[in-house]
Design goal:
- It contains 10 helices and 12 strands.
- With 351 residues, the chain is α/β, with parallel strands linked by helices.
- It has 2 domains: 158 residues, NAD(P)-binding Rossmann-like Domain (Rossmann fold, 3-Layer(aba) Sandwich); 176 residues, 3-Layer(aba) Sandwich (Rossmann fold), CATH 3.40.50.
- It has a 6-stranded parallel β-sheet with strand order 3-2-1-4-5-6.
- The chain is globular and about 65 Å long.
C-alpha cells in the first residue's frame, strides 16, 4: 500500500515552520509515497513550492477528511474540538506529561482509535531524541532575552511583539541594532549548556559578543535553588525537565532586589510538576513574549515555539533530521524501533 503523508496546516498563531520542506516532500515522493499539502497561508514555504515537487494539494484544515490510512503530519497543537480522531498523527502533542489539556487530547484519540506518534518521544535505542528544534529554540530564546535586557534598561514599556525573520543574518542585524553602547552588556548564564538548546543559546551569545557562563549537570547535580544565579543579568534555561528536578530559582532565592532581570525559560513547561522556574504560571506568546514574573524586577520569556522566529533555518534543519524516519515509516511493513517506542509512550499515556 502506498504511504500517504498529509501535511496539515498549523493553527498556532505566528507559527510559520513546517516539519517537511518541499525538498523533503520530493524525497518521499521519489521513494513512492504520496504527499498531500494543506493550504497554509502563513507557512514560510509557499504551497506552489510543494506543488512543484509533485505534492497533491488540499484545502486548509481538511485533514479530518483524509483517508483513514493517511498519516497526518504537523508540528504544534490541534484545534480544541470534540470529534474523535481516527488518524495517526505525528506532532508535538504536549499531552504525555500531565499537562492541563492532556485529558481532552488523549480522549479524542482514544475514542476514535487514532494514535499520537509524538515527536518529542521519537527516540533512538539510547533514549535520545532523534529530531528536535532544540538548537534554534535556544538560539532564539537567548536572543529575545538579550533584546529584552536592553529594552528594559531603557524603557518601562511592554517589550514588543516578536515577528519571524527571513534569515538568521537579518535577525542578527536587528539584534545588534538594539545593543546600545552606553548600556553595559549583560552577563549571561546558560543552564543545560551541553544540550541542543544550550548550544544554540551559547552560539547566539558568542555571535553577539556577550559574555556567557555555561552550567550543565556538574553545576546543577546538587539540586537548587542556586543563589549564584543572582550574579547574572540573564539566565537562559535549557535544562531537560527530568522528574524530581528541584527548582533552580524561587521567590525566596531571588530575594527582594534581584540582580537578574531576564529569565528565558526555553524548556518552558510551567504546568509540569518538574518546572524548575516556579515564578510564573503560563507560557507566553510571540505578541507578548516577555512578561513580569511573580518576583518584582524579574521578567520571564516562555514562548513554546521559539524557532518559528527563524522559520527557514529551523524548518530545514528539522526536516532533514526527521526525513529518514518518515522514509522508514513509508517503506517498512513494520515500524522501526524509534516509531515503536513512540507507540509505547502513547499507550502508556492513554492507559
Amino acid at each position: 500500500m502506498t504511504a500517504i503523508f498529509w501535511l496539515r496546516a498549523e493553527v498556532k498563531i505566528g507559527e510559520r515552520r513546517t516539519p517537511l520542506t518541499p525538498v523533503g516532500a520530493k524525497t518521499l515522493i521519489d521513494g513512492g509515497a504520496k504527499v498531500i499539502d494543506e493550504r497554509c497561508p502563513h507557512r514560510l514555504f509557499d504551497q506552489q513550492d510543494y506543488l512543484n515537487v509533485g505534492c497533491e494539494l488540499a484545502e486548509n484544515n481538511s485533514w479530518s477528511k483524509a483517508p483513514k490510512e493517511a498519516i497526518i503530519l504537523g508540528l504544534k497543537e490541534l484545534e480544541l474540538q470534540e470529534f474523535p480522531i481516527v488518524h495517526r498523527h505525528i506532532y508535538f502533542a504536549h499531552a504525555f506529561k500531565g499537562q492541563d489539556e492532556a485529558p481532552q487530547i488523549l480522549a479524542r484519540f482514544k475514542a476514535g482509535g487514532g494514535e499520537i506518534l509524538d515527536l518529542e518521544f521519537l527516540q533512538d535505542n539510547a533514549g535520545r531524541r532523534v529530531c528536535a528544534f532544540g538548537f534554534w529554540a535556544g538560539y532564539v530564546g537567548a536572543a529575545i532575552s538579550i533584546a529584552g535586557y536592553y529594552h528594559h534598561a531603557q524603557s518601562s514599556d511592554l517589550f514588543p511583539a516578536q515577528l519571524s525573520h527571513e534569515s538568521k543574518d537579518l535577525y542578527l542585524d536587528s539584534l545588534r541594532a538594539k545593543m546600545v553602547a552606553a548600556i553595559a552588556p549583560p552577563r549571561a548564564l546558560v543552564v543545560g549548556a551541553r544540550g541542543r538548546s544550550g548550544k544554540g543559546a551559547v552560539e547566539l551569545c558568542r555571535e553577539l559578543g556577550i559574555e556567557v557562563t555555561q552550567w550543565d549537570l556538574t553545576e546543577t547535580k546538587a539540586g537548587g535553588p542556586f543563589l549564584a544565579i543572582n550574579d547574572f543579568d540573564i539566565m537562559v534555561n535549557c535544562a531537560y525537565l527530568a522528574p524530581g528536578t528541584l527548582p533552580f530559582v524561587t521567590k525566596q532565592s531571588l530575594g527582594s532586589s534581584p540582580k537578574i532581570s531576564i529569565i528565558s525559560d526555553v524548556s518552558c513547561d510551567p504546568n509540569s510538576a518538574g518546572n524548575p522556574i516556579p515564578i510564573y504560571s503560563a507560557i507566553t506568546k510571540l505578541p507578548k513574549p516577555i512578561i513580569e514574573s511573580e518576583v518584582a524586577g524579574v521578567y520571564i520569556q516562555a514562548v513554546d515555539h521559539l524557532p518559528t522566529v527563524l522559520p527557514k533555518e529551523s524548518s530545514e534543519d528539522f526536516s532533514e533530521q526527521l526525513l529518514p524516519y518518515l522514509q522508514e515509516l513509508a517503506q517498512s511493513e513494520n515500524d522501526s524501533v524509534a516509531w515503536i517506542k513512540t507507540q509505547d509512550y502513547y499507550q502508556q499515556a492513554i492507559s
